[in-house]
Automatic annotation (TrEMBL):
The lineage of its organism: Bacteria, Pseudomonadati, Pseudomonadota, Alphaproteobacteria, Rhodobacterales. Its main location: cytoplasm. Zn(2+) binds at C145, C147, C182, H185. Homotetramer. GO terms for molecular function: thymidine kinase activity. Coiled coil: none annotated. This is Thymidine kinase. InterPro entries: P-loop_NTPase (IPR027417), Thymidine_kinase (IPR001267), Thymidine_kinase_CS (IPR020633). Residues 193-212 are annotated as: Disordered.
Amino acid sequence: MAKLYFNFSTMNAGKSTVLLQASHNYRERGMQTYLLTAQVDGRAGHGRVASRIGIGEAADTFAPGDNLFDRLAKRLDQGAVACVFIDEAQFLEPEQVWDLARAVDDLGVPVMCYGLRVDFRGELFPGSATLLALADELREVRTICHCGRKATMVVRKDAAGRALRDGAQVQIGGNETYLSLCRRHWREAVGDRPRSAVGGDQTRWISTDPTE
């Protein structure tokens, strides 16, 4: 029975490597796969899924507003597909996640999505939130913080290497921009402190800069 899978991680956990290996396993057995990646992320080149360890493969791209159910239906009309692989799934729109769920249910094709769970502010991406709600199976691709604990969060750094607290949710970047951390060290990096009970302070972010 076809299922919708969400393989989630933080940055630099090797999710694209896992995707490419899984696709290779199908093709090694004579079964075709179909790869899609976000048009907005062109770090590996347009229409390409690539890993930091140097392997990569051509892929079609998706953009906001694309009807992915129609896309998959047209691809299946061209020939059998054993599995669909979606890279950078955090950039899916909620309705596109529903498109994928409908493709699983109505077209009978397995769909495996790979993406980030939360952004640099510790907030869910809309596409990831919908995948967490709809996926038949959830799988975590793990990496570690510098302290050895499991990394579950990511910070976005400015040019001076300081952790940013605000900004657009989507900003494409690699190791020069993002760093994966455990929650404890993410909180230290962004200056998160417990809310004060005195005066009912509801401020989440408390500056650690003595000049402010």
